[in-house]
Design goal:
- Two copies of one chain form a homodimer.
- With 114 residues, the first copy, chain A, is an alpha+beta fold.
- A three-stranded antiparallel beta sheet of chain A has the order 1-3-2.
- In chain A, β2 and β3 form a beta hairpin.
- Chain A starts with 9 loop residues before the first helix and ends with a helix.
- The structure holds a DNA duplex (30 and 30 nucleotides).
Chain lengths: 114, 114
DNA sequence: TTGACAGTTGAACAATTGTTCAACTATAAT
DNA sequence: ATTATAGTTGAACAATTGTTCAACTGTCAA
């Protein structure tokens, strides 16, 4: 829908609008956060923090089915948060970006403070 | 459901499980990220970055209805990301925690790099 | 070359989450 | 007091998102 209320402070609204991040960037940032907003994906990232794991072992650590893991790994892969290598019958997943753990740590600290 | 695949490396799984963050903390961290995972909420936080705004003006900046704004402000308030003061007929909202913008900035940088 | 196992995929389903709508409260102005 | 305006609320609805299920691919071992 559209706005259903009149502007109170015209100038302030104009200025604030001018300072806003573009819609496309807002969407890419919120999509990024959405990835961390799911506990299964967070657990997967957490599990891969110290060592690479094959899908089967990852399932056992995180306590999910192969299918659920595979779907979530696809999302993480598409967003360049994990990468993988094939090893015989197994597929070994690992973090693609250590940077990511820092983001999680920042959130944990923030929550710890409140 | 439960895991549907056998363990490959028993010891690795055991060790990794031991290192995992507790489930309750995983949930609170993912809930935290969920808040930033919505573009409307992100826009609201972004709009309040430089100046406090009354609900009506916020609606005009972010382009949403009063009701939608109010619901989202409730969520942000419950999570201590915004606070408000009453001023006559208006309710003025402002950020409760500058820390939050840092988290968004970190995400933007991360996305900019890839 | 057949059987077993590891992982993937798409569609159906279930659950969660955001928006809309209509009714409501509270404040200010006449 | 009455009316108009600002904002809130809960329930219904719509949309999005995660999980399950069953069928599939590819690799290894017998």
């Amino acid at each position: 829908m559209v706005v259903d209320t009149p502007i109170v402070n015209e100038e302030k609204v104009k200025e604030t609008k001018a300072r806003m991040i573009s819609d496309t960037e807002i969407y890419s940032v919120s999509d990024f956060f959405k990835i961390f907003g799911d506990s299964t994906r967070l657990k997967i990232l957490c599990a891969l923090e110290n060592n690479p794991l094959c899908v089967g072992d990852l399932c056992n650590v995180v306590d999910i089915t192969k299918s659920a893991a595979s779907h979530q790994l696809n999302i993480l892969k598409a967003n360049k948060l994990v990468k993988f290598k094939k090893q015989g019958k197994n597929v070994i997943y690992m973090l693609d970006d250590e940077h990511v753990l820092m983001i999680i740590e920042t959130a944990r600290k923030h929550l710890g403070e409140k």
